[in-house]
Design brief:
alpha+beta, 7-stranded mixed β-sheet, 3-stranded antiparallel β-sheet, 11 helices, 18 strands, about 25% strand, binds flavin-adenine dinucleotide
Length: about 350
């Protein structure tokens, strides 16, 4: 097929993200890790340090590599080059018109099929009716990634093979501190958009007090948002158009992992498009929505049923102090999704 990738950013570009990928992503992308690591950061992860913010940390080790740290700046550029698609980079989607079964993008590109892959704020999702910030319950997050100086490296007690995850007491979010080669990534995400700046400030104070990070980290954090699958619903498709990844709101609710669902939804979409054989009417593209439900679960089954807030904070402290709960539930199930086989 003749494919054009239109992106508002010139590549390589930064993407606000911790840059943690699970082995399922490596397999789904058929990533040649030796080739990739030759000129890029690919940090093997074999352990985690977890706990509550202002609490004590607990370490869980694995016998093998259970995840990798990448830099989105490198990772996304590598995949874009490898795809072989034609690109129009540094060009935002500004206009979208449809007539006679064809889309016209920016008054220039004509196509029978449009795939909205523009992330949380995707203009194609908005075209399909997404009401950003109005009816959607998003997680908002702030993050910083920087190359440490030799002094900062010496002062950083976070080990590269052991990312650190610290949960908010109400369990409505968590902060992370993630060392990848010579880079350090620090961030925090929470449900809703209230008090995020205070929460990230408090988190950094905690990390400094515990001596986990150097005292003089840059203070320009970057913000972004994402939807948790099953907690908000976006229209996924229409005649000649479908959404993948964050545009479709697919990040796993427990961890916020969104790279794996973005990659998997794109592969599922590609298969549905090939099978459609040029017939891109809504009814034909519905197979894509059906396969997404089969893969990620039906939306209604996931909504509701949250634990009351007071109970949450009491439970949080007890559960995150348990080695068993941390390994089997928090890490294996929520973050590594070891029970969920690859696509
Ligand atoms: C702080 C933070 C930390 C995260 N950490 C992790 C993590 O460690 N691991 C993980 O798996 N997930 C993580 N996620 C989630 C993950 O980043 C996303 O789920 C994932 O990037 C979604 O991929 P995507 O391709 O759908 O969208 P994106 O990666 O957001 O890509 C969208 C692309 O669309 C382009 N674009 C946007 N608007 C326009 C426009 N108007 N015109 C043209 N182009 C446009 C952008 O430039 C961008 O290149 C994190 C999210 C946040 C916010």
């Amino acid at each position: 097929m003749s494919v054009v990738v239109l992106d508002q950013a010139p590549f390589p570009r930064d993407k606000v993200c911790a840059g943690w990928i699970t082995p399922a992503v490596v397999r789904a992308l058929q990533l040649d890790t030796t080739d990739y690591a030759r000129e890029r950061v690919l940090q093997p992860i074999t352990a985690f340090r977890t706990g509550l913010i202002h609490g004590s940390g607990l370490e869980t080790r694995y016998p093998d590599t259970v995840s990798f740290g990448i830099r989105r700046r490198e990772f996304d550029d590598y995949l874009l080059q490898r795809s072989g698609a034609r690109t129009q980079l540094g060009q935002a989607l500004k206009s979208l018109d449809r007539s006679g079964g064809l889309w016209t993008v920016n008054g220039a590109i004509k196509t029978p099929l449009l795939i909205g892959a523009g992330g949380h704020f995707c203009p194609v999702a908005r075209f399909l009716g997404a009401k950003l910030g109005a009816t959607e319950a998003a997680v908002t997050a702030k993050e910083i990634e920087f190359e440490m100086s030799p002094e900062q490296r010496a002062d950083c007690r976070v080990r590269a093979d052991t990312p650190e995850l610290y949960f908010c007491r109400d369990l409505k979010g968590y902060g992370w501190c993630f060392r990848k080669g010579g880079y350090l990534n620090i961030g925090l995400g929470r449900e809703g958009n209230q008090g995020l700046s205070e929460a990230i400030g408090d988190f950094c104070d905690f990390l400094r007090e515990r001596g986990r990070i150097p005292g003089n980290i840059p203070d320009r954090f970057h913000g972004h948002a994402y939807l948790q699958y099953g907690r908000s619903r976006r229209k996924l498709l229409d005649d000649g158009v479908l959404l993948v990844g964050d545009a479709a709101g697919l990040a796993y609710p427990e961890s916020g992992e969104g790279i794996r669902p973005a990659v998997e939804s794109a592969l599922i979409a590609a298969a549905a498009v090939v099978e459609a054989g040029g017939d891109y009417r809504r009814q034909t593209l519905e197979t894509y929505a059906g396969r997404l439900r089969a893969r990620f679960g039906s939306v209604s089954a996931k909504a509701g049923g949250t634990v009351p807030e007071l109970l949450r904070s009491v439970l949080a402290s007890a559960l995150l102090g348990s080695h068993w709960f941390t390994r089997r539930v928090v890490l294996d199930r929520w973050f590594l999704r070891a029970h969920h086989p690859g696509l």
